[in-house]
Amino acid sequence: MLSHIRRTLSLVRGCSGVCRIQTSTNPARSSSSFSDLTTASDSGGLVLRSQSTDVYLNLALEDWIDANLDLQQRSVLLLWGNQPAVVIGRHQNPWTECNLPAMRKAGIPLARRRSGGGTVYHDLGNLNLTFFTSKKAYDRQRNLKVVTDALRRIRPELDVKATERFDILLNGHLKISGSASRLSRKSSYHHCTLLHSADRSTLSASLRPSCPGILSNATPSVPSPVANLVDHAPALQWEELLDALEHQYNTEFGFSAASTLVNPADEAAFPGLSRMEAELRSWDWTFSKTPKFSIQTVLDLTDARSARSSAQLNMEIKSGLIESCQLDVPTDWLPQRLIGELSGVLVGERFCGHRAAAAVTALLRSESGELQDRLTNLCDAVVRAMG
Questions:
Q1: Which tens digit of pLDDT belongs to each residue from 308-328?
Q2: Complete DSSP assignment for 349-363
Q3: Taking the model in full, what pTM does it have?
């Protein structure tokens, strides 16, 4: 494993495509051997830039570094950016945090990270910074000082300040950075966002609840007004920002590290990272890790003759699966037999509209005429309630 780790700390060449994170007036240097990088990291610091813009690969890269590098001897700053994605915290409920139907329509993936904290929107106008240290050296305020000092140095007119909640605010109320962290037995990492020129309309559209009526003890996000740095410093270039952050990291911690490009898609360089990535991509990790919750909501019903009624839906969901389902539907709308059969079909299924729609297909085919029409309408309402 040690030989693999040594190879990992070399620059990966031939990455397909050029990520915005690579571009800098002080380009990240090339290295073809571990010895080249140990020279840069003798001071105890290492600055890495991910060449990937895939959210799952970059989250897996964080976990790989935490698990495989000796963070007792070396601190690491990882800079990375993603194509549009929504990232929820380890203990959050995706159905209450983000607009899953809108995200599916826009092709925006959802990822659950291993750290706590709230939900964030990523795109290539947002920079992510991850500070890796030993658990003993863990200091979020000092890490955020790197960011605020860098911004003050290159744009003294910006009023930026880190808060006790480990956010960074512009002009006292506009959030430009949020934080989360993970502590292991001996190591730690703290990551934060930094909004440079993100698409705020997509951010706003994505960070809305999918389902009304959810009752949950999952960690909720705290909504805040946000701003991009370029809204208040229009001439601030991405490359200038990267250079300033790298410089300030070295200054704050007394390092002399040059930045190095790494490609987390290179399995030979990062043995085992693809397994970490596969887990992060899985439905089981993204949805089944949601803390137990319930949903209580009213369903509006309308049949082909425009007759109207309503039903009450009550579900319990555990590990992403429907543990119980109760439907209170007027018996003059549907016979109790069909209501019970529909509830029975849904129990044990994933809390997922597509899976629920597939599960009730056979039941719908067993009926005809007005009963089939009303049953279809009820099923459609249940599917919509599941986001």
A1: 999 999 999 999 999 999 999
A2: SBS-HHHHHHHTHHH
A3: 0.90
